[in-house]
Every structure is written in C-alpha cells, then in structure tokens.
Design the sequence.
C-alpha cells in the first residue's frame, strides 16, 4: 500500500489517483504490456501536472480491495474533488469498488495502461465504466496524464 500527497493549497479540491492491485509492480511487471515506467514515475509526472495548475494531488495504491474501498470512503473528507482510477484486475470483478465510488458521488475517470478490449475476453467488461465520466484504455502512461488534464479542466469549470 502506497500513498503520496502534494503540498498545494488545501482549499482547492484535490485530484486523487487510485492504483489497484499489482500496479505497485509497474516498471518490472510485463513491460511489453504495461511499459517501463514505475508507479513512482507515473505519480511524479501527475504530481507535476497538478502542481503546475495549483491543484493538490493525492495518490494511493493497494493490492487489497477493502483497503481501496476504505480509502474511497474517506476521499470527500480529504478534500478530493475528482478521482482517476486504474482498478487493475478489480475492473472486471468488483461490484463493491463500483458501489464505493457511487457512494461517495465523486466524478471519476477509469484508466487502463493496456487496451483491455484487445486482451483476453474476461478483461473486456468493466464493472465501473458505466458510472465513469470516461474511460481511457490502451494509451499507456499518457492515459493517466490525459485523465488528470481532463480532471483539472473539470475542477476549474466547477469552481
């Protein structure tokens, strides 16, 4: 389980990036599918984007479904205004993760490094996609960046 937070002003809603199971292995796990960037590399890049916009950044990774759900439940109290989530393998199985996101009523974008629709048939269905503002799949690390840039615009329009 990994969490990090930038030091931007707390009165501005933050962007939370959630990383699900096995994403702590990025950079070494099947790099032909997931790339060579580590989770720390990805978070540093996203933190740079949010800091440049003056928006707080919070990231969290866990291999445990329950821990991710507990973190989502506390997100509104942490000042989160938008969630970017790569649920990993929970994408295809977790009604509980879907319910947690619905329960806190925070807007979110679902992100996948690989194109889940070009992979095994069991990966084609997402339990979260119909609740998400959008889904970005198959664009590697850039997918996270596009999602965060969209979240920044969303928060700016809302303020």
Sequence:
């Amino acid at each position: 389980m990994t969490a990090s937070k930038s030091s931007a002003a707390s009165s501005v809603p933050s962007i939370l990036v959630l990383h699900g199971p096995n994403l702590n292995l990025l950079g070494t796990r099947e790099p032909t599918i997931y790339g060579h960037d580590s989770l720390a590399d990805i978070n540093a890049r996203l933190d740079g984007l949010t800091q440049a916009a003056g928006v707080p950044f919070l990231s969290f990774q866990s291999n445990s479904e329950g821990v991710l759900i507990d973190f989502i439940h506390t997100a509104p109290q942490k000042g989160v205004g938008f969630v970017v989530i790569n649920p990993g393998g929970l994408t295809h199985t977790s009604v509980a993760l879907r319910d947690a996101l619905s329960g806190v009523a925070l807007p979110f974008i679902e992100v996948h490094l690989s194109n889940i629709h070009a992979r095994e048939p069991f990966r084609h269905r997402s339990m979260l996609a119909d609740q998400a503002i959008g889904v970005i799949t198959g664009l590697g690390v850039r997918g996270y960046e596009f999602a965060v840039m969209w979240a920044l615009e969303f928060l700016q329009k809302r303020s």
In short: DSSP finds five helices and six strands in the chain. The longest helix spans residues 141-158. The two ends are 32 Å apart (CA to CA).
